[in-house]
Amino acid sequence: xxxxxxxxxxxxxxxxxxxxxxxxxxxxxxxxxxxxxxxxxxxxxxxxxxxxxxxxxxxxxxxxxxxxxxxxxxxxxxxxxxxxxxxxxxxxxxxxxxxxxxxxxxxxxxxxxxxxxxxxxxxxxxxxxxxxxxxxxxxxxxxxxxxxxxxxxxxxxxxxxxxxxxxxxxxxxxxxxxxxxxxxxxxxxxxxxxxxxxxxxxxxxxxxxxxxxxxxxxxxxxxxxxxxxxxxxxxxxxxxxxxxxxxxxxxxxxxxxxxxxxxxxxxxxxxxxxxxxxxxxxxxxxxxxxxxxxxxxxxxxxxxxxxx
Amino acid sequence: xxxxxxxxxxxxxxxxxxxxxxxxxxxxxxxxxxxxxxxxxxxxxxxxxxxxxxxxxxxxxxxxxxxxxxxxxxxxxxxxxxxxxxxxxxxxxxxxxxxxxxxxxxxxxxxxxxxxxxxxxxxxxxxxxxxxxxxxxxxxxxxxxxxxxxxxxxxxxxxxxxxxxxxxxxxxxxxxxxxxxxxxxxxxxxxxxxxxxxxxxxxxxxxxxxxxxxxxxxxxxxxxxxxxxxxxxxxxxxxxxxxxxxxxxxxxxxxxxxxxxxxxxxxxxxxxxxxxxxxxxxxxxxxxxxxxxxxxxxxxxxxxxxxxxxxxxxxxxxxxxxxxxxxxxxxxxxxxxxxxx
Lengths: 308, 341
Ligand SMILES: Nc1ncnc2c1ncn2[C@@H]1O[C@H](COP(=O)(O)OP(=O)(O)OP(=O)(O)O)[C@@H](O)[C@H]1O
Ligand SMILES: Nc1ncnc2c1ncn2[C@@H]1O[C@H](COP(=O)(O)OP(=O)(O)OP(=O)(O)O)[C@@H](O)[C@H]1O
Ligand code: SF4
Ligand SMILES: [Mg+2]
Ligand SMILES: [Mg+2]
Hints:
The complex is a heterodimer of chains A (about 300) and B (about 350).
Chain A: E1 2-17, E2 22-38, E3 42-47, H1 53-60, E4 68-73, E5 76-77, H2 83-90, E6 93-96, H3 110-121, H4 126-139, H5 156-168, E7 174-178, H6 186-203, E8 206-210, H7 214-220, E9 223-228, E10 231-237, H8 238-243, H9 248-255, H10 265-281, H11 283-286, E11 296-298, E12 304-306
Parallel strand pairs in A: 3-8, 3-9, 6-7, 7-8
Antiparallel strand pairs in A: 1-2, 1-4, 4-5, 9-10, 10-12, 11-12
Helix pairs in contact in A: 3-4, 3-5, 4-5, 5-6, 9-10
Chain B: E1 4-17, E2 20-33, E3 37-41, H1 48-56, E4 64-72, E5 75-76, H2 82-88, E6 93-96, H3 100-103, H4 110-121, H5 126-139, H6 145-149, H7 158-169, E7 176-180, H8 188-205, E8 208-213, H9 216-222, E9 225-230, E10 233-239, H10 240-245, H11 250-258, E11 307-309, E12 315-317, H12 337-340
Parallel strand pairs in B: 3-8, 3-9, 6-7, 7-8
Antiparallel strand pairs in B: 1-2, 1-4, 4-5, 9-10, 10-12, 11-12
Helix pairs in contact in B: 4-5, 5-7, 7-8
The structure holds adenosine-5'-triphosphate (2 copies), iron/sulfur cluster and magnesium ion (2 copies).
One adenosine-5'-triphosphate (ATP) binds near residues 53 and 212 of chain A.
Organism (chain A): Peribacillus castrilensis
Family (chain A): Belongs to the ABC transporter superfamily.
Protein name (chain A): ATP-binding cassette domain-containing protein
């Protein structure tokens, strides 16, 4: 079942200039992106810095104005709903942010941090609320006494889990995880990734997973899309992207992944050099005269590439 | 015989907390040779930056104490006074900091910042300085060096800023560069470009590089030798090939198993229980890693763990590696990538 479908999504930010702060141009942060998420799957979004990954994720939770296009969640177009109409959907879609150090309010106790979304939607007695919060703390592997502590009393991995507990209290269907482990050490990262997989099983969650660590994305995702300058340039099952990349940008991205085998590194330096010159010589095969990637075209039932 | 550039012997750096000193770097020794990249790896809080700042003598002297020997060109850097050290720093020893935006001066153009370093160490005329600066910016792969020369740090993307920092670090053709997490904040394509760039510069100047990182795959890509640090101590060291093909210390093996990679795809990742102890809690004796592998019997550890040579310049601390196995919890042990190799 399709849970989320983006159809030709565009998010353009105005650039203002001149004396009257008139709009002089636009940053086309997201410029015609379409993809679907099936219920229960993990879909990865990768691409270079500034390619529009976070903007896409934020558009789905309405943290960004959508310029045009549709965001169909269980068939309803979120992009066309007003702030009031969208409220019931806010429960179903939650976002986890990159930085566990700054995304939690340092002045609030864990109880208040986790209960905040709950308070917006339900009227609970303090004891009911406390019970729910403690249940979720238990799920994320933190002790019940944690409710009285403040964020600075926890390690990075623990803070990230507090953020996750907070996003789970409303029993969402879709979680948008924007680089949830980028700021963490490998060992803590492993803890959080395992944990996200357990939760997915337990609650039948669907994840939109934004990241730039391709090892992490491969580990987590069933399918993925590769973004480049606001456009999707390739989409497919994770193994198709990693084993058989077709777009020149995807090839460069895959070639840039550091390898755990020291023996192959000279080959990889050579491969990267080759791809850099191939990028220059075959540019027109992949980008139109305005430097915009072409629309995606299927090359198999699951694999799509932006080719002329 | 390779020529040694820097020899660190029994370096201990302690910070004052209250009225006691606690060691963040504890009896660390290793050598960096010409044309060599030595990677220092370990989790957050293991003392990697404290080590780098000790070499550069950038710690606050009121609250920090460094002992041992950092031998550079026949002199112990720890014995130099501020004036002598200023001559070495920036000119012969370059440093690339963890966070470029805080290390660069936000109010000064990139060009001026590079020239300032040249000013301090050279007698070039202003035209020569500008030429050298443009040359450096070109060398680090900045596409429009003339334009970047006039730009301020905030006007550059993360990758460009990191390149600008590298150009400052290499301005005086240093014999050694210390790079503290130079690519952690960057995406993979830019990370690869920067690492390729450092190697490229190295092949011309033969400089030595100390690369500090917690990303083991980066180490596998570029380093010649590895120093694995845990709680301020070296727990394992050797050539990259040796350590990746035959990792011995439980900490090294645990780190390798916690990385998502093709070898442990879709399996559960290994989690190292517990945390790196704070410096006030690090025991002066006993294996510091023992609390994180509680299923290994206490008698497997040495009372005062020493580094043991196991051949090929490969050293490992404590005897516990002989008894170590991954606990059957989860699939981590079944998919121990350090054994598949
Ligand atoms: N509120 C905003 N106003 C103007 N421009 C914006 C705004 N938010 C994002 N942008 C621009 O939109 C583009 C896409 O940004 P976005 O944050 O989505 O990138 P990203 O792919 O998430 O990158 P990263 O990997 O660095 O997080 C960038 O050029 C950015 O500068
Ligand atoms: N100036 C200081 N005063 C007191 N303690 C310090 C000081 N600097 C670092 N420490 C402590 O020394 C230990 C080592 O810190 P260091 O910054 O070297 O870690 P690191 O390995 O570089 O970690 P990261 O990967 O997070 O950068 C930590 O426990 C830290 O809290
Ligand atoms: S040649 Fe380089 S190292 Fe020597 S004095 Fe001039 S700038 Fe400094
Ligand atoms: Mg982002
Ligand atoms: Mg550090």
